[in-house]
């Protein structure tokens, strides 16, 4: 059966056509890439992304270097990158020790915390059940808010878990509600292993939206099976106007085997522009940034849209 959204018109009203793209390449992207990227290049990547027009650029993670050596230079990164007016620069914080280290830098004014929607993933990732990890996150969030630090929430494995299989949408809803009640200004729902389809994402969102308003949600899709943009469209149809993506499709998730990549920012921007959404982000500039990064870091990572636009640009020269 075709779901109703497929037939609905695409003329979004002007009030509803703003869309926020949260750039996560420097953190979510680089943490999953095997090669260590020198600090100088990370800093320039963040600065170049800031110049593209994003309102949120996630920069690094204050997780122990033992777990994620790729981001061991978090102190230097946050101290060295520029801070464009109107741009938020969240850093990922796994626990109270991470928050303490982030606060010690004196420059972090936004953090992101994460909880999983399955016990299997939560235990593998933070060595605690979902309930146990939520208790700790409530404390971390409270400490951050008391220090005037804004908090964004992430929920991992909202559709499927590599250890537990299909995830119950009611659990996703409860974790999301808990994070919002703790004081997160927004919760990003992550399909960490990219298994979601229109059908499963739709059901998950319907359940979550019974408990929390669409304005408080963002979505975070991985393109493992090529379903990310379809899933963004479903989210849009349900009223969500924010999504995470990664320049050049950098990264996946180091704890999720086979999570081969974040939705690429270039692909998301092309899709949004073509469907009448305003993001404030310059797509061509993002493509140039991806091209620069590949050269500077010795990578060869391209999104489909990035490759197409880059080829077009080269022909003009
Ligand atoms: Zn991701």
Overview of this structure, please?
The protein is an alpha/beta fold. It has a single domain, classed as Aldolase class I (TIM Barrel, Alpha-Beta Barrel). It contains 12 helices and 11 strands. The chain has a 9-stranded parallel beta sheet with strand order 2-1-11-10-9-6-5-4-3, with helices on both faces. A two-stranded antiparallel ribbon has the order 7-8. Helix 8 packs parallel to helix 9. The protein starts with 19 loop residues before the first strand and ends with a helix. 50% of the residues are buried. The model has no long low-confidence stretch (mean pLDDT 92). The protein binds zinc ion. The site of zinc ion (ZN) has 5 residues, from loops.
């Amino acid at each position: 059966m075709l779901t109703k959204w497929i037939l609905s018109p695409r003329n979004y009203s002007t009030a509803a056509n703003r869309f926020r793209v949260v750039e996560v390449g420097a953190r979510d992207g680089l943490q999953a890439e095997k090669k260590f990227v020198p600090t100088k290049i990370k800093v320039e990547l963040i600065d170049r992304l800031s110049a593209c027009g994003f309102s949120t650029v996630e920069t690094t993670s204050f997780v122990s270097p033992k777990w994620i050596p790729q981001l061991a230079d978090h102190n230097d990164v946050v101290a060295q990158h520029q801070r464009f007016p109107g741009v938020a620069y969240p850093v990922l914080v796994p626990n109270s020790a991470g928050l303490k280290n982030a606060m010690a830098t004196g420059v972090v004014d936004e953090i992101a915390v994460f909880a999983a929607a399955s016990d299997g993933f939560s235990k593998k990732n933070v060595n605690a059940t979902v309930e146990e990890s939520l208790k700790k996150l409530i404390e971390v969030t409270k400490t951050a808010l008391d220090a005037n630090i804004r908090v964004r929430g992430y929920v991992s494995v909202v559709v499927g878990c590599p250890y537990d299989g299909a995830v119950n949408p009611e659990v996703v809803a409860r974790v999301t509600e808990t994070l919002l009640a703790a004081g997160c200004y927004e919760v990003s729902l992550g399909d960490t292993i990219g298994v979601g389809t229109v059908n499963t994402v739709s059901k998950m969102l319907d359940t979550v939206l019974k408990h929390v308003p669409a304005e408080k949600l963002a979505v975070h899709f991985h393109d493992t099976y090529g379903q990310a943009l379809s899933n963004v469209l479903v989210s849009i149809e349900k009223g969500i106007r924010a999504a995470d993506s990664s320049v050049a499709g950098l990264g996946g998730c180091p704890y999720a085997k086979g999570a081969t990549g974040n939705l690429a920012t270039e692909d998301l921007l092309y899709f949004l522009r073509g469907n009448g959404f305003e993001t404030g982000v310059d797509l061509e500039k993002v493509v140039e940034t991806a091209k620069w990064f590949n050269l500077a870091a010795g990578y060869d990572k391209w999104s489909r849209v990035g490759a197409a636009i880059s080829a077009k640009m080269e022909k003009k020269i």
